[in-house]
Amino acid sequence: MAVVNRQVLLKRRPTGAPTIGDFEVVDAPMPAPTEGEILCRTIYLSLDPYMRGRMNEGRSYATPAQVGKPMVGGTVGEVVESRHPGFARGDFVLGYDGWQAYAVSQGVGARKLDPKQAPISTALGVLGMPGMTAYVGLLDIGKPKEGETVVVSAAAGAVGSAVGQIAKIKGCRVVGVVGSREKCEHVVKELGFDACVNHKAEDLVQALEKACPRGIDIYFENVGGGVLAAVLRLINPNARIPLCGLISEYNATTPPPGPNLRPLLVNRALIKGFIVFDHADRLGEFLRDCTGWVREGRLKYREDIVEGLENAPSAFLGLFQGRNFGKLLVRVGDDPTRSIASR
Ligand code: NAP
Ligand code: FER
Question: What are the two backbone dihedrals, phi and then psi, of residue 279, each rounded to the nearest 5 degrees?
Fold first, then answer.
């Protein structure tokens, strides 16, 4: 076993866009589990947009990450030592161990993973928090009906790619908004979207008008800013807008100008913010449906895996520029289930 525990600490709280200097890579002593605890070796670390919020001081739905401590985050790991009756050495677990190679925990909220059910990395993506966000946001708030037009932003990302495919499964016309030609091609050719527009290259209102000849019934909002402003001009009567994220605004230092909300008024449209963690009652149905769709090949997923914990800070910054293509993960340690599968 390694003698040191590599960690990425939050060094200081950023103002505006985070930089590499806000993080510090250190080698800490190996932790040891006491009675009732497990020691896990991190295999995958999830990098997610919400982490930008955790870097800030102040009130949120969760306590902020602490300066001088490892950054927080979801992980998939392997139990290397257990003094907990519920876990054994060799178990694979979904946990919240943060940006570090090893962690001791009491296993609270940790879920054992069966590598035969699905690749263990999917517990951080399509079969994890982002997939569940897509599932509850689209189905419970968007309430899609067959034949309706669904637009989703950040459509090649972890949440957006699942939103679009679940909407196709429900019989909708699906249009993605993404930031590159390659991402456009991917969501149409690989994921089966009906059309896609590039927010960096096209006149958005014109392109959306062309892609949505019957207007927009559901807009699954991930980005805010100019994309939201353009979409609102095309919403249909009684449109629903699950407000999932506003990534274009997470680094803003002054409140961004608000969009024109008149289309919401005149179209009797519903916009509703939601946080996936409030929907834990749907976990069973989400896992049942989405595991089935993944196995049937109807819900595809793409992972963008960065090698090495020390590369987590720069990969994280890339989320805010669209550098990731699919669910962003860091491979912190060897994945024994993958090497078996590829043998
Ligand atoms: P992701 O889509 O895999 O990655 C983020 C993507 O956002 C980037 O690849 C980029 O894609 C796009 N983006 C970044 N900056 C942008 C900008 N200024 N304008 C337009 N697009 C921009 O990330 P994810 O994990 O799936 O998260 C997607 C959204 O869901 C985020 O807003 C996140 O905060 C939110 N979320 C919310 C909940 C909840 O409970 N409410 C849970 C999970 C995630 P392009 O290259 O296509 O521009
Ligand atoms: C996210 C963005 C924001 C997210 C949660 C939030 C779980 C919640 C923020 C808050 O309560 O301040 O991507 O994912």
Answer: -115, 30
Please, what are the domains in the chain? 4-124+302-331 (3.90.180.10), 129-277 (3.40.50.720)
Q: Residue 45: beta bridge partners?
A: 75, 330
Pocket mutation for ligand 1, best pick of 48, 184, 202, 222 (most atoms within 8 Å of C-beta): 222
Q: Which ligand is nearest to the CA of 136?
A: 1
Task: Give the confidence band of 2 by pLDDT, cuts at 50, 70, 90.
Answer: confident
CA–CA dist 184, 180 (Å, integer):
6
**Mean pLDDT score of the chain, rounded to an integer?**
96
> Counting ligands in written order, which one lies closest to the CA of residue 275?
1
Give the tokens for residue 324: 């990731």
pLDDT digits (tens, 9 = 90+) for 119-157: 999 999 999 999 999 999 999 999 999 999 999 999 999
Which residue type occupies 333? G
